[in-house]
Amino acid sequence: MSVDNPETTPPPPPTVEVLASVPKPPVPDNPEATTVRITLPPGSPGNPPHRHTGPGFGYVVKGEMIFELEGEPERVIKAGETFWEPGGDVIHYQGGNNLSDGETVYLATILGVPGQPVVIPVSAEELEERRDRRAPRP
Q1: What is the C-alpha separation between 14 and 35, in angstroms, rounded?
Q2: What is the pTM of this model?
Q3: Domains delineated in the chain
Q4: What is the DSSP letter of 133?
Q5: Which of 9, 36, 71, 76 shows a CA-CA span of 20 to 30 A to 107?
Q6: What span, in angstroms and rounded, lies between the C-alpha atoms of 77 and 92?
Q7: Which of 61, 111, 45 is nearest to 84 (CA)?
């Protein structure tokens, strides 16, 4: 297409598709937004159980992720799908690769407390104290 030719047809406008929406997520005061890209090798369990200081919003770019939050059953999120977690006191048990023969890549944006780590590990003692809050495992 020539820029100088007035008879050319302009390209169509961009397509905007809402993939997820969370009304009134629990955002900390004066949050810091951090976006990360996580690449999980085949079979990787991901980070050990942890929490975030604020909500996290994510999108699986490639592969399949096993996702489990405290009080919810684990589920598989596939490429092109989104996820979110409230952060705060909720434990994020799993964010591992569901594939044994390929990597999984996802993006996450955390709206957390400035100066605090994005991922805060949960101790074995706390996991034991809260075991009744974990959904039954398959």
Answers
A1: 23
A2: 0.87
A3: 32-123 (2.60.120.10)
A4: G
A5: 71
A6: 15
A7: 111
E runs forming strands in the chain: 32-40, 50-51, 56-62, 64-69, 75-78, 82-85, 92-97, 104-112, 120-121
Of 97, 109, 100, 107, nearest in space to 65 by CA: 97
β-strands 64-69, 32-40 pairing? unpaired
**Residues in Cβ contact with 1 at an 8 Å cutoff, skipping those fewer than 6 apart:** 8
Per-residue pLDDT of the chain (138 residues; tens, 9 = 90+): 555 566 789 999 999 999 999 999 999 999 999 999 999 999 999 999 999 999 999 999 999 999 999 999 999 999 999 999 999 999 999 999 999 999 999 999 999 999 999 999 999 999 999 999 999 987
- Residues forming a β-bridge with 108: 36, 58
In the chain, what is the greatest distance between 2 CA atoms, to the nearest angstrom? 71
Residue 2 tokens, joined: 């020539």
Other C-beta atoms lying within 10 Å of the C-beta of residue 89: 9
Distances in Å between the alpha carbon of 72 and those of 30, 49, 67, 137? 29, 14, 9, 10
